[in-house]
Amino acid sequence: MGARRLYALAAAAGMRHFHFVPHPWGLSSDTSGEEARLMYRLEDYIPDRHEAYARYLLAHITPSQRWGIGRLDLDGWKMFFKGGGAPARARWTIRSRSSNGTACGSPRP
């Protein structure tokens, strides 16, 4: 996608504090409020032709990465989740986002 397009997407989504770090991308930053708004309106930023694939990616997490919010299993909820992390000097930076299934264009099944 590239930095230019990521910054354009961030601007369209009202993410005024977004900062892209290419290597490792997990050190890119924004605010938790911006992430919450992005996940809430995610369907606005995904082309219709890619919506099913995006929902698939957000609903299927590698088992070793299922911790925190991604481990919730609530009746009637379809969880969409994105987590990431990267070593930052002597510690890890962890970033997680989730949605209860209202993101990506349709109500939860």
What do these coordinates show?
The protein has 109 residues and is an alpha+beta fold. The protein has one domain (2-99). It is 27% helix and 17% strand. The protein contains three helices and two strands, in the order H-H-H-E-E. Strands 1-2 form a two-stranded antiparallel ribbon.
Quick structural gist:
By secondary structure, the chain is α+β, with helices and mostly antiparallel strands. The protein is built from three helices and two strands, in the order H-H-H-E-E.
Which features does this protein show?
alpha+beta, 3 helices, 2 strands, single chain, two-stranded antiparallel ribbon, disordered C terminus
Largest sheet: 2 strands, antiparallel
- Report how far the terminal alpha carbons are from each other: 30 Å
> Which value, in Å, is the CA radius of gyration?
14 Å
Number of separate structural domains: 1
What oligomeric arrangement do these chains adopt?
Answer: single chain
* Range of helix content: 25-40%
What is the average of the pLDDT values? Answer: 75
Principal-axis shape: globular
Based on helices, strands and strand pairing, what is the structural class?
A: alpha+beta
Total number of beta strands: 2
> Count of helices?
3
- Poorly predicted runs of 5 or more residues: 102-109
- Determine the strand fraction and express it as a percent band: 15-25%
**Strand order across the biggest sheet?**
1-2
Task: Give me the strand/helix succession.
Answer: HHHEE
